[in-house]
Amino acid sequence: MDDEIWAAAHRWREHLDAHNGTDPLELTCRIMKITEEAGEAAQAWIGVLGQNPRKGVTHTTGDVVGELADVAFTALVAIASLGADPRQAVHDVVTKASGYLPS
Q1: How far apart are CA 60 and CA 72, in angstroms?
Q2: CA-to-CA distance for 27 and 33, rounded, in angstroms?
Q3: 30 in Cβ contact with 23 (< 8 Å)
Q4: Distance CA 58, CA 49 (A)
Q5: Which pLDDT belongs to residue 12?
Q6: How far apart are the first and last CA of the chain?
Q7: CA-to-CA distance for 40 and 70, rounded, in angstroms?
Q8: From CA 54, how far away is CA 59, in angstroms rounded?
Q9: How many angstroms separate the CA atoms of 62 and 57, rounded?
Q10: CB neighbours (10 Å) of residue 27?
Q11: Four-residue CA torsion sign, 3, 12, 68, 96
Q12: Rounded Cα distance, 75 and 12, in Å
């Protein structure tokens, strides 16, 4: 399954490149898409908590997990769109984050 994730990120980058190009505005939109997806995750969490009295509880924790996964995958596609290797980028950040934990 791991290889499928990285391959899908590259396939989506190729698809977007072919349909939308790769100019700076397009790359900006791909990065901004991460924020859009994060907003959907926040909206789902608000729905789990029932924080909107007019709407009540509208989402499940599973909905939030799905939205967070959208954020992660969208970020992988954006990383690939910038010409970087998403697998290496994630490895590097995990290594960095691990250095902050006590051993």
Answers
A1: 19
A2: 10
A3: no
A4: 9
A5: 98
A6: 29
A7: 9
A8: 14
A9: 13
A10: 17
A11: positive
A12: 11
Query: What are 86's two structure tokens?
Result: 């998403």
**Digit-coded pLDDT (tens) for 2-57:** 899 999 999 999 999 999 999 999 999 999 999 999 999 999 999 999 999 999 99
Would the pTM of this model clear 0.70, i.e. be above it?
Answer: yes
How far apart, in Å, are the Cα atoms of 58 and each of 38, 39, 41, 65, 67?
17, 15, 13, 14, 14
Q: Where are the alpha helices (DSSP H) in 21-60?
A: 24-49
Within 8 A by CB and 6+ apart from 90, the residues are 76
Tokens of 2: 């791991």
The pLDDT tens digits of the residues spanning 42-78 come to: 999 999 999 999 999 999 999 999 999 999 999 999 9
